[in-house]
Amino acid sequence: MPKKVDRHERRTLIADALMRVAARQGMEAVSLRHVANEAGVSPGMVQHYFRTKDEMMAFAMTVVRERNQARVTEAISRLGEQPAPRALLRAMITAVLPLTEESRIDGRVALAFLAYTAVRPDAAAGIGADTQQMLGFMAGLLPGPDRDGRAAGLLALMEGLGVYLLGGHYTAEQALAALDAQLDIVFAASDLAEAR
Amino acid sequence: MPKKVDRHERRTLIADALMRVAARQGMEAVSLRHVANEAGVSPGMVQHYFRTKDEMMAFAMTVVRERNQARVTEAISRLGEQPAPRALLRAMITAVLPLTEESRIDGRVALAFLAYTAVRPDAAAGIGADTQQMLGFMAGLLPGPDRDGRAAGLLALMEGLGVYLLGGHYTAEQALAALDAQLDIVFAASDLAEAR
Question: Which of A56-60, A128-132, A183-187, B49-53 has the highest mean pLDDT?
Fold first, then answer.
């Protein structure tokens, strides 16, 4: 009798292959055949786990989100107990920015996914909820007034820095300087409001 | 004798076809054959004007940049003489954000281009200079201190808002509220610095 196959393990093996193809050659290279070659399995096997390209993309994006979550958790744990809101936000955002080779690979997949879903909104189902959760968390750390608007701005700034880092438009120094300038004015504006 | 063909006109016809394919089906659908079908010409004709996919992509991005520039110029002209820096920045940024069907099409092409060049940095040659020019212009309009950091943050925020609008993560209202909150704190922080 054949050995029982660990479904999750094989799915992850295929997803890892998909990530490598997408990171190296971009989204248009992601096909059943390419991913199968990279994973060393048959195209039929890939199709057994992912029926469509949408499913492959969504699963890869889940992997990226889980890795980002792990990076954030690890960065926060290094801050010690009761970190200041500003330090917490800075640690979270720098943990997600594509500043290391590993996070650049994930960033390229995330950018490919964004470009893919911009023309196929159905494939992005579930991402919206993530964004709203992140916004709520950030808003809770920011000083008032207008926490929601500021959180939406900070999240967009984070995304834009990621895009510009991946494209080589900003250096790491430029991106971190922009982030620090942003945190300066967000927290300075609250000082001003309090002083009034 | 055959009529003289207007090279620029035909190139633009092909580029428009490329834009429609990329906006409708995403980057992975952009091939010589697809673009030729859409333009109603032969694949050989497309290849005569664009030897490689890199060349097609770079030209499409040039078209998007020119259209964005025209939108910005038009938005600024509506502000009257000597607009305040804040009003000028707001008009420029909202003119570029994908808030209309026309600018959404261009936005999808720009996003596809970003994803494409994130794995092929050579295809992005020339874009870096554009970014630096835009940063310099924005920095000149922002109140000090740390104009460079704030300009880099504002440009990244603009890019992130565009990405989130295209992906449906933010509504138009959310994006504009984030932009206004950003302009609030950028200009409020300068009030604070002056008050000290």
Answer: A183-187
pLDDT value, residue B191? 60
Exposure string of B68-93, with b = 16+ CB inside 10 Å and e = fewer, is beebbeebeeeeeeeeeebebbbbbb
Residue B136 in domain: yes
User: Residue A163, Cβ neighbours under 10 Å: how many?
Assistant: 25
Interface of A with B in 25-54 (CB under 8 A): 25-28, 30
The residue among A25, A28, A61 with the most chain B CBs within 10 A of its CB, best to mutate, is A28
How many domains does one find in chain A?
Answer: 1
CB A62 within 8 A of CB A71: no
Q: How far away is chain B from the Cα of A139, in angstroms, using its nearest Cα? A: 12
* Cβ–Cβ contact B117 with A under 8 A: yes
The answer on pLDDT for A127 being more than 80 is no
Read off the CATH number of the domain in which B157 is found: 1.10.357.10
ipTM: 0.87
Residue B34 with chain A: CB contacts under 8 Å = none
Is there a contact between B103 and B13 (Cβ–Cβ < 8 Å)?
no
Cα–Cα distances (Å) from A166 to A180, B100, B172, in that order, read 19, 27, 26
| Cα–Cα distance, B109 to B21 (Å, whole number) | 9
What is the reported pLDDT for B1?
47
Q: What is the mean pLDDT of chain A?
A: 86
Q: Are B26 and A111 an interchain contact pair (Cβ–Cβ within 8 Å)?
A: no
Question: Are A60 and A38 within 8 A, CB to CB?
Answer: no
Provide the domain limits for residue B155.
Answer: 82-195
Q: How far apart are CA B29 and CA A29, in angstroms?
A: 11
Which of A69, A77, A18 is closest to A43 using CA atoms? A18
The stretches in chain B having pLDDT less than 50 are 1
Mutate to test the interface with A, among B24, B146, B163 (most CBs of A within 10 A): B163
* Residues B128, A168 contacting (CB under 8 angstroms): yes
Q: How far apart are CA B172 and CA B170, in angstroms?
A: 7
End-to-end Cα separation, chain B, in angstroms = 77
Burial-class residue A67 by CB neighbours within 10 Å (0-12, 13-18, 19+): middle
